[in-house]
Amino acid sequence: MTSTEERVAEARRLAVADPAAHTADLAGAVGALGRECAARGDRGRAIVVTTEAVEVYRELAGEDPPRYTPSLADELGQLSDLLALAGEHTPARVAAAEAVRILRTLGPGAALADALDRLGARLAALGQHAMSATAAAEAAAIRGG
Question: Would the pTM count as exceeding 0.85?
Answer without folding.
Answer: yes
